[in-house]
Design a protein that fits this description.
The protein is an alpha+beta fold. It has a domain at about 10-210: Spore Coat Polysaccharide Biosynthesis Protein SpsA, Chain A (Alpha-Beta Complex), CATH 3.90.550. About 40% of the residues lie in helices and about 10% in strands. The chain is built from 13 helices and ten strands. A hairpin with a 2-residue loop joins strand 8 and strand 9 (about 230-235). Helix 4 packs antiparallel against helix 12. The longest helix is centred in the C-terminal third of the chain and has 27 residues, at about 335-360. It is globular and about 60 Å long.
Length: about 400
């Protein structure tokens, strides 16, 4: 999908998709009021003859190395699913679900049925894509939000939704063309993919366990967010009709008892970590919020692993670090983020990774094991790793 107002070179993106055959779909009325939906209608209807699946990329996407191989391997393991190759690092629910899958060790994250579709890079079976195109066609272009309309279609048709972990696509961070959609946008878990011949093979029954975290069916479903330098808990409150993008959350320390967590134990564990860690300390406020978020994430991932019908290998350290680093980069205020500096940012990510490890290895209520930073989880995060490149 491309709008001429976005002055980007598309040939490198087309080339990076090979041997998949990528075609550029232009906005059919670029001088009219901006509407991603208008171009999406054309893009979803442009299905190649004989194709089994159809992928739509937006023009501010960049793809990982060996992109086509990973896409084809992923399709082979989940051929009937809608597959998002990206989720936004600050989306209200899907970002947490992808971080949860990364820490639990799953290559698949079950997406929320209520949140918008990550339309930057979304794939469907060809027959479903054709049905989606017919569904979108009569919707007025003035609606503009293709991601919301695709989500509505998937809910109504019962299309199962997954995201690849790590993501195969990142946002290049170009300025948005639509008013009200500003801010910075990047992938939630951007790390080098594992070898494609084995990475996507996990038993499909894991999808059901992960999906239970965001089905709007149980009173104890929740997500964790870091926003404006605060760790927040959102209880999903099923059957209330609240929209998937609802921003209303509770501060973690005030409400964590509802999910079985003692706030004092978390803060005590943070103090112990800081006392045993050499070098400068991250700013106290940022340290507390990232520590709490990491611990809650690790704790929930441990619960997922206990419930899975098949054992999972331990999560890859690079993916855990990627999941934490995007909380640091997207969740702190601009002022707090700038105050960190490179060394402070790395120390804060180390702290978040240690908190995840603590949550993962919590033995019983009120008992914590010592949390250290695994040697292979140290170092800079993988957002600009050599395995991925700008398109």
């Amino acid at each position: 999908m491309h709008h001429p107002a976005r002055d980007v070179a598309l040939d490198p993106l087309v080339e990076a998709c090979r041997p998949l055959s990528a075609r550029i779909v232009h906005d059919p009325d670029p001088d009219a009021a901006r509407s991603p939906l208008r171009t999406a209608k054309v893009a979803w209807a442009s299905i190649a003859e004989g194709a089994t699946h159809h992928l739509v990329l937006q023009d501010d996407a960049r793809v990982c190395d060996d992109f086509a191989t990973h896409v084809v391997a992923a399709i082979a393991r989940r051929p009937a699913h809608g597959i998002a190759l990206y989720t936004d690092w600050s989306s209200p629910q899907n970002s947490f679900l992808c971080r949860l899958a990364a820490v639990a060790g799953s290559p698949w994250a079950a997406l929320s049925p209520m949140e918008w579709i990550p339309a930057l890079a979304f794939l469907l079976p060809a027959d479903v894509a054709a049905d989606l195109a017919a569904y979108l066609a009569p919707i007025p272009d003035e609606v503009t939000d293709d991601d919301q309309m695709i989500a509505r279609y998937c809910r109504e048709r019962g299309v199962p939704l997954l995201a690849t972990v790590p993501h195969l696509v990142d946002n290049r961070g170009l300025p948005t063309l639509i008013a009200g959609h500003g801010g910075r946008h990047h992938a939630t878990v951007w790390a080098p993919p594992a070898p494609s011949d084995t990475h996507w093979e996990l038993d499909p029954r894991i999808d059901t366990t992960l999906a239970s975290r965001s089905r709007y069916q149980s009173h104890d479903e929740y997500v964790v967010r870091v926003k404006d330098s605060r760790c927040l808990i959102r209880l999903l409150r099923p059957h209330t009709g609240e929209p998937g993008g609802n921003e209303f959350c509770w501060y973690w320390a005030d409400w964590c008892d509802l999910i079985g967590v003692d706030a004092e134990e978390v803060t005590t564990a943070l103090a112990a970590y800081l006392d045993n860690r050499p070098g400068p300390r991250p700013p106290a406020r940022a340290a507390l919020e990232i520590w709490a978020a990491g611990y809650l994430l690790g704790r929930e991932a441990a619960a997922v692993r206990r419930e899975l019908p098949v054992p999972l290998v331990p999560a890859h350290p690079a993916r855990i670090r990627a999941a934490v680093s995007t909380w640091v980069d997207s969740g702190l205020t601009a002022l707090d983020g700038a105050a960190l500096g490179a060394a402070g940012r790395s120390a804060l990510i180390d702290l978040g990774v240690a908190a995840v490890a603590l949550g993962l290895h919590r033995r019983s209520p009120g008992t914590f094991v010592t949390a250290g930073v695994p040697a292979d989880a140290r170092g800079e995060d993988t957002r600009h790793d050599h395995a991925c490149h700008d398109s």
